[in-house]
Design brief:
The chain has 11 helices and 11 strands. By secondary structure, the protein is α/β, with parallel strands linked by helices.
Length: 303
């Protein structure tokens, strides 16, 4: 099992360079992150978009466009579709959002003819490294599914488990987060979903992981807190993946880890036929680079 984001980078590098297609690649900070990933042996970059704008952005980013394949596509939505086609044809392994609106980018991902959907649920998975835990923590879903149903939560968990396993986890522990550790169907219906997910895992409906819940955040990540509360359960204090009950709490947790604790973060969209790097304009350079590394590490190979 990996313990740090550097371990994730090492695993990605060991599996060989992956071909990354960047949609509307004329975005300076994205180009700098791609160049770092290229220079560290993680990717070969394919820059898709308006060639003149890409070359100008490369100059600003101090990146040599000659080190990349540049595919001239004038409009950002068409560039995103072209990246999807490349993945389907096998000339790219995964893709990243550049200077394109998120709505247009996701529309291409979900396109029925050329998109990357497998026909199931798409979800957002983030991974964090903090100073005090000594291990990585995955958080899902902070960006796509707003109020997921029980079946959708099962899909979100399975997506996150798949990424964790490809990155280097054998059987990650999933904590279904709540405010308490007891099932309260009248006042806290999410606790019922958490308990159901745990049973689904025990009976093989969700595979490759151990699911526990409901668990409060402190009990999920701290063995000391679990001991003080007298809670004995499979995931108490040892969670690898934190499943939030809905997007509000997931997003708040994501941004609290980033902006308050200063945790290093990476994030991708999964449930697609290839990882999709979807970063925010507000994300710093390191987050963009680490998200590329996460995408590269999350591609299953036969090596």
């Amino acid at each position: 099992m990996i313990r740090s984001l550097n371990d994730m980078i090492v695993n990605a590098r060991a599996s060989g360079r992956k071909k990354l297609a960047v949609a509307a690649a004329n975005e300076v900070e994205v180009l700098r992150a791609v160049e770092q990933a290229r220079s560290e042996g993680l990717v070969e970059g394919i820059l898709v978009g308006d060639k003149t704008a890409i070359e100008s952005a490369c100059e600003q980013a101090e990146v040599k466009s000659s080190d990349y394949r540049v595919v001239n596509v004038s409009q950002p939505p068409a560039a995103a579709l072209e990246c999807c086609r490349m993945i389907r044809e096998g000339s790219a392994d995964f893709m990243m959002k550049g200077a394109i609106k998120t709505g247009d980018f996701m529309k291409a991902i979900l396109d029925k003819n050329d998109g990357l959907s497998r026909g199931g649920l798409l979800s957002h998975v983030a991974v964090f490294e903090t100073d005090n835990l000594g291990r990585l923590i995955f958080v899902t879903d902070a960006a796509i599914n707003i109020f997921p149903t029980l079946s959708e939560k099962a899909g979100i968990v399975q997506n996150a488990v798949g990424i964790a396993q490809n990155i280097g986890y054998d059987e990650p522990i999933v904590a279904c987060l709540g405010a308490v550790e007891v099932v309260n169907p009248d006042k806290m219906p999410d606790t019922v979903d958490s308990a159901a997910l745990a049973v689904m895992s025990q009976r093989g409906q969700i595979t490759g992981c151990v699911i526990d819940g409901p668990l409060a955040l402190d009990v999920a990540i701290s063995e000391k807190a679990a001991s003080v509360k007298g809670l004995k359960s499979p995931g108490a204090g040892r969670a690898d993946i934190l499943l939030a009950p809905e997007i509000h709490s997931a997003n708040i947790l994501y941004k609290s880890l980033t902006y308050i604790s200063g945790a290093q973060a990476a994030a991708i969209v999964t449930g697609t036929i290839a990882p999709v790097v979807l970063t925010s304009r507000a994300d710093d350079h390191q987050t963009k680079f680490l998200s590329i590394a996460m995408g590269a590490a999350g591609i299953k190979t036969d090596n």
